[in-house]
Amino acid sequence: MTDPGTPERHPVQQRGLYFEEFDLDALYQHRPGRTVTESDNVLFTTMTMNTQALHLDAAWSATQPFGERLVNSMFTLSTMVGSSVAQLTQGTIVANLGFSDVTFPHPLHHGDTLYSESIVTDKRLSKSRPGQGIITLEHRGRNQDGVVVGTAVRTVLVWCRDAAQ
Fold this sequence. Notes:
Residues 28-137 form the MaoC-like domain. This is MaoC family dehydratase. The protein is an alpha+beta fold. The chain has a single domain, classed as Thiol Ester Dehydrase, Chain A (Roll). 20% of the residues lie in helices and 33% in strands. The protein starts with 27 loop residues before the first strand and ends in a 6-residue tail after the last strand. The mean pLDDT is 95.
């Protein structure tokens, strides 16, 4: 309820981008970053039933090439993509169509901060679904030193502005 004399305010709801708003020339930087803890890694790894000792067994991992446990690469991928949602697809996505070209060129360690960014590499209207468009995104994750720790190409189906529900 507003006080008399206070101007009426219009609601603004946080959302992702409609098809028309995706910019092929933009570098979308998703902030804040996410500092990854040991608890994050162990919980994600056990929750997804991944028994890989490289994520769970400190003594064994100490004898391996990296000398310590590594963050589960599926956590890296999930966090990289998840950090883009509020800015790009929150409430405007119809469906996640798929991933390709997923890479992990450098490991993520406990205590590292993951920063993610995305570019649009392609966009086109759907031929079979009027009012919807297909966006191809290239996601990249970097640690606090700017080292690339993950990349993925993701294709999504999103609403066009006039057809959004």
